[in-house]
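quick one before i forget lol
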Amino acid sequence: DFWGWIGPAAAARGLAHRRDRPRSGGQVAERRRSARRVAPGGLMMGRTTAVYFSSSNPQKHVDIARLFHDSPNPPRSLRQEVPEVLSYDLEAIVRAKAIAAYKLAFVPLFVEHGGLYVEALGELPGPLVKLFCERLSLLELCRLIPAGTSRRAEFRQRVCYCDGKQLQVHAGSI
């Protein structure tokens, strides 16, 4: 349940209801509260609530802006450092990131995390690709694969939305 995520002190202060004011990253407070009503079938009615994309990686913010450039309500950038859980479970990582980001900002937001799964390396580095790439270049990573072995790999990505009431995880891979 949500109150377990943010703790009893924050719940007592009612901080979960301040979804329209980012509390970190130098964001300007949004003064208007937006009503969100969802009709059957998931259609939005009335005004929509601002949604933020949380990441400390500037390139990810550029990618999100490019992806949503034609959207009538693109996600806003929320640049904040969120601790990452060291786990091989991609969904657990993205859920923990979303909860941690929400605890810092108290706004509806989404986060993403991906992993590179190389068949010949026993599906390593997986979601730990950032740690691998801090020590090895991609060329060195490729050299770990024995000659004549398949270089088949898959990139898996998870996006998690958190609005203080729910977590929604969406998956994709290439």
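fyi The chain is about 30% helix and 25% strand.
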